[in-house]
Design brief:
The chain is mainly alpha-helical. Helix content is 42%, strand content 6%. Pfam families: Lipase_GDSL. This is GDSL esterase/lipase EXL3-like.
């Protein structure tokens, strides 16, 4: 950790924040001229900017063609897209910074930490078994990393500045798709123990526990993404959509059921913790709208990803040797068979978040 004295570090931090706010033209207008010190993300591949690069797992994407359109181009960072992912886009919307780095990145500086990081891990879920099956960072381990983060910041800038940072920052939680699409639908373990209603109960209980623990650590402004229309992802169409590759009915029903439970439990937590701002972020209907009305949002291809055939390639199956990868990802909603393109993430993030920003304050 940087050896600067605490007063100098705090001065450096506020100076850097002022520069970031001035330079970041994509920031939304926040109520009451609020400024956000940091953004933190927890969850799965949707908000993982590269934590999986530094762990032993097959769930990686730090190779081409991932990152093909990132920054100046051809920079596979470990983000599961051709470019930015929602954690980056959201950090910019709140006026903090344009890229939200991975907490495990060994090259982070103190300033990177002070303005927020992502603890997310591609392949993780609310169900502890989800991360265990693919050897990624579980939700409880992500929470432990956040506790470690708090200790580091206290050592650098002191308890008062740390407390302010933790309480006034924005927290984004995004997971659940891997629980349903992978752990429940594609493996028999949970299906022998639970039907869809009871499995989504398990997920909701885990989500509630996590949010209460996060609150206990000082978080107050927490946005939680509902699950998208995962049955309409290209991979789910291929696996469970029949010969016509229709949207998977079972996956979408499970997503809708979980989302209703997630929204209700967040209402209950807002009642329990009146000083908190827990904001449910509906991602299901916005993605469905994009899929049903692609031209309205500037897209042409909805049923397959850009990478390879677009029907099944994701992660290590989407690689430099994947034939027929599209030349223009901006025509596609999906980059691979599971993850949207940067353009789609930008559109989706605006549809999901822009009208809800005021609810964080």
């Amino acid at each position: 950790m940087n050896t600067l004295s605490q007063p100098n570090v705090v001065l450096l931090w506020f100076s850097a924040m002022a520069i970031i706010f001035e330079q970041n033209g994509s920031a939304a207008s926040l109520p009451n001229n609020e400024t956000i010190p940091a953004v933190f993300a927890f969850g799965d591949s949707i908000v993982d900017p590269g934590n999986n690069n530094y762990i032993s797992t097959l769930i990686k994407c730090n190779f081409p063609p991932y990152g093909r359109d990132f920054a100046e181009g051809n920079r596979p960072t470990g983000r599961f897209s051709n470019g930015l992912v929602p954690s980056d886009i959201i950090a910019a919307k709140f006026g903090v910074k344009k890229l939200l780095p991975a907490y495990l990145d060994p090259n982070l500086h103190l300033q990177d930490l002070l303005t927020g990081v992502s603890f997310a891990s591609g392949g993780a879920g609310y169900d502890p078994l989800t991360a265990e099956l693919v050897s990624v960072i579980s939700l409880s381990d992500q929470l432990n990393m956040f506790k470690e983060y708090i200790r580091k910041i206290k050592d650098a800038v002191g308890e008062r500045t740390t407390t302010i940072t933790i309480s006034k920052s924005i927290y984004i939680v995004c997971m659940g798709s891997d629980d349903i699409a992978n752990t429940y639908i594609q493996t028999p373990i949970r299906r022998t123990q639970y039907d869809i209603p009871s499995y989504t109960d398990l997920m909701a209980a885990q989500a509630s526990n996590f949010l209460q623990e996060l609150y206990g650590l000082g978080a107050r402004r927490i946005g939680v993404f509902g699950i998208t229309a995962i049955g309409c992802m290209p991979s789910q169409r291929t696996i469970d959509g029949g010969i016509l590759r229709a949207c998977s009915y079972n996956a979408n029903v499970a997503a809708i059921l979980f989302n209703s439970k997630l929204s209700s439990l967040m209402d209950a937590l807002n009642e329990k913790f009146p000083e908190a701002r827990l904001v449910y972020l509906d991602a299901y209907n916005p993605l469905l709208s994009m899929l049903q009305n692609p031209t309205r949002y500037g897209f042409e291809v909805t049923e397959k990803g850009c990478c390879g055939t677009g029907n099944i390639e994701v992660g290590i199956l989407c690689n430099p040797y994947s034939v027929n990868t599209c030349s223009n990802a901006s025509n596609y909603i999906f980059w691979d068979s599971y993850h949207p393109t940067e353009k789609a993430y930008n559109a989706l993030s605006s549809l999901v978040l822009d009208d809800k920003i005021k609810n964080f304050f």
